[in-house]
Amino acid sequence: MKPPVLALRQVRLADGPRMLFDGVDLALEPRCRACLVGRNGAGKTTLLRILAGEVQADDGERTLVPGLRIAWVPQEPVISGPTVLDHLVAAGAAPHEAEAALQTFGLDPAKPSEGLSGGEVRRAALAAAFARDADVLLLDEPTNHLDIPAIATLEAEIAASRAAVLLVSHDRAFLERVSDRCFWLEGRRVRRLDRGFAHFEAWAEGIAAAEAEDARRLQKRIEQAEHWMQRGVTARRARNEGRRRALLDLRAARADLLREARGQMSLEAAASEGSGQRVIEVRRISKAWAGRTVIRDFSTRIQRGDRVAVVGPNGAGKTTLVRMLVGQQAPDSGTVKLGTGLEVAYLDQTRAELKPEMTLREVLAPLGGDQILVRGKPWHVTAYAKSFLFTDAQLRQPVRSLSGGERNRLLLARVLAAPSNLLVLDEPTNDLDMDTLDLLEEALEDYAGTLLLVSHDRDFIDRLATSTIALNGRGDIVETPGGWKDFEGQNPGFLLPPARPPAPARKAAAPPPSPTRPGKLSYRDQRRLEAAEALAASLPAEIQALELRLSDSGLYRRDPKAFERLTAELDTARARLEAAETEWLELEELKANLASGG
pTM for the complete prediction? Predict the structure, then answer.
């Protein structure tokens, strides 16, 4: 293994009275693709900031090779300067590299920096990181606010990059595609797995089971030592002082285990009385704005208990469609009929209900008092907040003091407490850690009502959706039974932007264009070639691993859902490998033609 270009050794850092890191070791070698996994509040962002040199640890070493260039994309990047191109150049990118990177991420270099959407800010920040040709990329929740096509672009750019990459993300599908190593921040230390995220959960479960067994054995030793003390320590105090100290040490070790045990969060969606069998019926609705049709002649019927995912690029009209489906916005043409007895609970992606100056108590109990109704039963606001991992002290804090994940958790607590039989969640997974995502998924699986889900999290959609509605932003809409993989398999290329029309012919009097350098691919084609080469190299191992798991003759009998999921993943991996090999061959042929002047 190559020596690391950036490393931490025995790093310690306290956050007030709480020890955040206690002996963290972490090393990044050239071109590694690592993810950093841990629950919200464990300190993942702080650890990235230590690696980036923005935060100084209390103790330990940070080492890096001389002249190392680090590109750091935080959770909430800030874009400044007159245009996005100006921002990239000011951040250290060469103008031509900056322009090419912005175009790769679908941004006009001349676009003003002010007034950017969340997705545009994220794409500009990522373009700035890749344009600098850094040696290390540190990316904190890079898929937040990105649509699925933009996430695919990011995956290709990571595959093509020469940099070592460390990612923090909740997006399982994204991490499975890009990572070859996992760092697990748990219990104030970092554990390392030299395999991709696809293997992380089984590995982590094995560690958790081993630690549970260690805790059981420790408790047994404590019970034996306490029994001995009760029977004989007073008679032989001096002679057996060592055993008494050993018991105290055991108790201290158990106390450490209990302190490290994470709180248990309880998520459950409050369902009201059932709606009618027909929840929503849509007939030939259309919608346009600014002269652009985003929804054209769409019809569907949503029945009680359906779980409908809505996907598409940013700006394609997903939120508009959902607002029309629930009667909050009228279509330009067509009809929307709502069923009887509907009670709608709505989680807005803008999080507009959260005012920075509000306290957590005011958000959960806007009418005041100490009790709120949860699933029709009175709960003390402190107890309900605790079930979402908020402390009594936090109830008195303003919303602005919360992290992105905590704000999302707070809104989920408010929305899930309201009785409903139609639950609308617009981008509910942003900033949530994976444990919370699992709990949210379980709550939604048990929810007795109907679910409308807008999300770019492909894994989350696959786990929940009974059907998927996709918009491409050009007015076209398709509905496919099943989740993301079902949609992608049946509608290849639906979300891709249309091919650019050929440039108009130059006038005869115009001077000839400057010749391009012979024998060289364009910047974008070179990136595509490197990405295809990286995929062609990495996918065979992924395919082999899936084939090995499917070779278990008893898998289908034990877990038919897992068998079906792995089969679908294998088909997708084979298709991706075939596409990568085809693209590689085409680009190599183009490269050879350019070199020969053909």
Answer: 0.69
